[in-house]
Design goal:
The protein is mainly alpha-helical. The chain contains seven helices and two strands, in the order ααααααββα.
């Protein structure tokens, strides 16, 4: 029975069929009783959309599911907002979580950026890092943390683990680049200006 009905009128056309039926009933009520103008407009618009969906051949979903197929595009458009406001937690989004964005917003407005009563992070999770106060002072051999690169090559060199990553003149400005480069020279570490495609150590910082 259901298979026979499905062959006569596919279930996926139900909304389209109801829209056409509503348009015809509204048109009859408008002609006979002078009422139902808004109903005719709504059902007529839906019927026109459904007819266009059936006749077009660019979007298979809209063709197979007239009118209803447009809900997919609407939900895809609303999906980021729905996830942001209803599904994602304060610490889940990438590259920056909602908590991080809220912190930046508050600091930009000179607002309160401190929250009391603990943290939302799982401090017992594997990989969580923190700093502890030392029970006794520690003596470091040097504050200049450096490693040797190219030990197996003819010209090994010493490089600092503190370096400035690539930010070009277009990203910052000439004065900012010069200031960063001066700081890199004082600190004895590398500065990648971002103006070249390959890694290099500026002449000012080579040792």
């Amino acid at each position: 029975m259901l298979h026979h009905l499905q062959s006569l009128f596919p279930v996926r056309y139900t909304v389209f069929g109801l829209s056409v039926l509503g348009f015809l009933l509204g048109l009859f009520a408008l002609v006979a009783f002078g009422e139902g103008g808004s109903w005719v407009l709504v059902c007529g618009a839906l019927s026109a959309i459904g007819l266009y969906d059936v006749l077009q051949n660019k979007h298979s979903i809209a063709r197979n599911y007239p009118i209803l197929g447009h809900l997919r595009h609407l939900l895809e458009h609303l999906r980021p907002q729905m996830r942001s406001y209803f599904l994602d937690g304060d610490l889940e989004a990438v590259p920056f979580s909602r908590a991080q964005r809220a912190l930046v917003y508050e600091r930009a407005k000179n607002g309160a950026d401190k929250h009391s009563f603990g943290t939302q992070h799982n401090v017992y999770a594997e990989g969580y890092e923190w700093l502890n106060h030392a029970m006794a002072p520690t003596q470091l051999d040097s504050h200049d943390f450096r490693i040797t690169l190219g030990e197996t090559r003819n010209q090994p060199y010493s490089a600092s683990i503190f370096n400035i990553s690539a930010m070009s003149f277009g990203a910052l400005s000439a004065h900012a680049i010069l200031a960063l480069n001066a700081g890199a020279r004082r600190g004895g570490f590398a500065h990648n200006t971002g103006e070249v495609c390959h890694f290099q150590i500026p002449l000012a910082t080579r040792r």
